[in-house]
Amino acid sequence: MTWVDAHCHLQLPTDPTHDTRDAAALGDDAVHRATAAGVDWMVCVGTDLPTSQEACALADRHPPVYAAVGLHPHEASKLGAQWAMLEPLAASDACVAVGEAGFDLYYEHSPRDEQETAFRFQIRLAHRLGKPLVIHSRDAWDDTFRVLDDEGVPEGTVFHCFTGGPSEAEAALARGCHLSFSGIVSFRNADDVRAAARLAPADRIMVETDAPFLAPEPHRGRRNEPAYVVAVGEALARARGVDPAEIAACTAANARRVFGVGPRVPAG
Fold this sequence. Notes:
- This protein has nine helices and eight strands.
- It is of the alpha/beta class.
- It has one domain (3-259): TIM Barrel.
- An eight-stranded parallel β-sheet has the order 1-2-3-4-5-6-7-8.
- α2 packs parallel to α3, α4 (112-129) crosses α5 and α8 crosses α9 (244-259).
- The two termini are 27 Å apart.
């Protein structure tokens, strides 16, 4: 039984209370632990230009790693300074998706009009490149769906770290999107997320860690990492009332189809 982590951030710095090594070394180690735990491959996601470059560098170093290039809504204000370099990076062979992009109206670290501008830019970029779009949407369902309807939904669009309930799931699924479930599906207070997980068709679901954030039970309180996607998958299996092997197989197949990739082998 093997797994795919559809969304992680191997390159983000760790909390110094957990480890003092640099993020690159932590990412390298996390890849090795993931493969030992049965993770076939993973998508390392950028949140701005430097972290997107680092995601591509990790993909170059490690055959089980692929990159996504994008501008998180927290960083949307950087679009004017970074778009010219983000676009060619997103077009590179190392990049399998655009994003994460969207709205975060819980924190609103960038003004919402700038979040919308950056979101529209990345939707159009995904359309131009023919690559999937990875969406971050927090406290922003109406705005997210409005912009998607305006711009058109890129093929293979994924709502990462899905936090909605059945109505939001149905709206996303009606637009042809996929739902990626994180460790939140294992949390006690996430009944709405588990209800959404039960109604989603098997060919529209994925699992992710969103590492280093949101470690699933029984790893709460630790730095999250791709190896823990196994626990996410097991929690999703419990929510859907199926065997974990079924979840591993369908989520891996969905990730291969959406991102257009499979496990790579080292050159030579």
